[in-house]
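Handout, page 2. Input:
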Amino acid sequence: MTAPRDLLLTAEEKLDPRHTAVIVIDMQQEFTLPGFFSDRIGQNISDAAGVASRLGDLLTAARDAGVMVAHVHADYAPQHMSGPMWERLVRHGREPYCQHGTQGFEPYPGFEPLPGEPVVIKHRFDAFFETDLHAILQAREIRTVVITGVATHVCVDSTARHAYFLDYYVVFGEDLTGGADAETTAATLATMRQCFGVCATGGEIAEVWKSSPNKTKTKE
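Output:
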């Protein structure tokens, strides 16, 4: 069997600024700051500041190279929840969280979308489910998505898998996601490498863009 001629094999090919987008998932206060939902339920937020710093550096590199940046924000208000979602809350004795109009819905400080950067609102863990994210990426002829944000093993993982099913090349930011303990993170990364894409650090990704002949300050 002969492989397709337009197969993207190298990091330089996959991360070409002309067809790459960074997807920033759920960098919202509800999932990253003390006193909000993730902290209240005992989820790991100790790495939030480190993830934010590294991801902030990557977004600067992306914008400098003309790489598309798309933000995904969760809105889990009751009117958007399904029966199984309610069941999960009841089972764990929790109240609805991350609702539009609340402080928890707001972006992590410094992660406010810049003018022109698309913002996708999702009501499930998967950023592609019943949203216009796929259409936005297709309109820009995106072939590769760099998946970042929180939580590694939930919304980030769910979105990365769906991206692969939609035939995007997946680059999973191994130090650009957070919200899981070390063991869970390692298991998620191992599954990504084996089945869905490649894993790379923010520094490795930024270096590809820095040396790319196709970088541009603006991207129409």
